[in-house]
Amino acid sequence: MRALDRFGGMVAVVVGVSACLAPAGAEQIAVSNYGIAANAMPYAVALEKKFYQAEGADVTGIISSQGGGTSIRNMLAGGVAYGEANPGATAVAIQQGADLKIISDNVLTVAEFVWAVKPDSSIKTIQDFKGKKIGYTNPRSTSQALAILLLQAAGLKPTDAELVRTGGFGEGVAALDLGAIDVAPMAEPVWSKFKSKYRAVVAASDVLPPLDNVVGITTTAAAATRGDFIRAVIRARRKAVEFMHANPDEAGDIVAKHYNLEKDVARSAVRSLTASRTQGIPYWGSGQFHLEGMKRMMDVQKMVGAITTEIDVAKMIDTSFLPADIRTPK
C-alpha cells in the first residue's frame, strides 16, 4: 500500500498526478495527497459534482503529491493559483521567503488517526503503551508528534515507550503484522480498510484537542490576479463538504471512484469523518480559520523539530478570499 504520510515536510518526493488529468489549457489545482488521504476527499466530490464550474472555476484536474512541501513546490514552479498543504510546511516556507499566503483553514482536527493493535493484544488503553513499541511514519511527522501527545495524555513520558519509524501508514500495518511494533497509527482510509482485522485502542478525537492539519494556500502573484478563481475554488470546496455531510454514502461512492477504493471502505471513511467532532469541531472545515487549532499544530510540529523557530501564523493569513459569512476567524 502506498504510504499515506501527509506531513513529509519539505523533502523531495515523486509527484503523482491524479487519474483525472486536465486537458491542455484547463485549470489545475495542487492538493497534497489527493487520491491518497482523507484531507483531500472534498476535492473529489467537487470535481465529480462539477461544483467548481458551478462556482465559476473551470477546474478539471488536480495535481497530487505525498507531502505538503511538494504541493508548495508544485504551486511555486507551475504557476498554480490554489493549493492545499500542511500548515507547518507552509509556515516554514513563508518564513524562508516563499511567496505564499494562507487563505483558508480546511481540515480542523486529526480525527482521521486511530492507534490500533492486533485483536489478541494485551494493550487495552493508552496507559498500556508503557514499555511498548509504537509506530510512526517518519521523523518530524505529525504521527510522531501525536504518539508523544498520546503518551503525555496517558501520564507517561516519551521515553516510557519506544517510538519506531515505519516509513508510512501501510508499512506500519505490515510492521504490526510482523510483530515489529505493538501499536500502529492508521489514518483514514487505511483504518476503514483494515478495521475488521485490528482493534482500535484510541482515536485521536477521543483524547487530543483540535489540531489544524491542512490549509488552503496561494501565491502573492495569484492573489493579485486570480482572486475570482481562488474564491470560486473555496466556495466549491465548501459546497462539497456540505454535500458530504448531507449525503455521506453518495460522497463515499465518489471518493471510491477517485481514490481507487472499495465502496464500503470509502463509505466508512466518509461516514466516520463527517460524524466526527473533536470538542465540537468538525474534521473538514468550511474554510473559516480556527486560530487556536492552528497554533496548537505549530506547537506540535515544534515538538519533533519540523518547526525550529517562533512563527506568528496570524501574520501569514489572508481572509479576504473567504465568503463574507466565514471571514471572521473563530
Structural overview:
- With 330 residues, the chain is of the alpha+beta class.
- The protein has 2 domains: 16-109 and 211-326, 3-Layer(aba) Sandwich (D-Maltodextrin-Binding Protein, domain 2); 113-207, 3-Layer(aba) Sandwich (D-Maltodextrin-Binding Protein, domain 2).
- The chain has helices at 41-48, 51-55, 68-78, 87-95, 142-153, 169-178, 190-194, 204-207, 220-225, 227-246, 248-259, 263-275, 291-303, and strands at 16-17, 27-32, 59-65, 83-85, 100-107, 113-117, 133-136, 162-165, 184-187, 199-203, 214-219, 277-278, 281-282, 284-287.
- A 7-stranded mixed sheet has the order 1-3-2-4-11-5-14, with helices on both faces. Strands 9-6-10 form a 3-stranded antiparallel sheet.
- The longest helix has 20 residues, at 227-246.
- The radius of gyration is 19 Å and the shape is globular.
Query: DSSP strand (E) fraction?
Result: 15-25%
Unreliable stretches (pLDDT < 50, length at least 5) are: 1-25
Mean pLDDT over all positions: 90
Largest sheet: 7 strands, mixed
Principal-axis shape equals: globular
The CATH architecture of the largest domain can be given as 3-Layer(aba) Sandwich
Give the ordered list of helices and strands: EEHHEHEHEEEHEHEHEHEHHHHEEEH
CATH superfamily of the largest domain: Periplasmic binding protein-like II
The helix-and-strand class reads alpha+beta
Count of helix runs:
13
Strand order of the largest sheet: 1-3-2-4-11-5-14
CATH class of the largest domain: Alpha Beta
Residue share in helix: 25-40%
Number of beta strands: 14
Question: What is the end-to-end distance?
Answer: 38 Å
Q: Whole-number radius of gyration?
A: 19 Å
- Total number of domains: 2
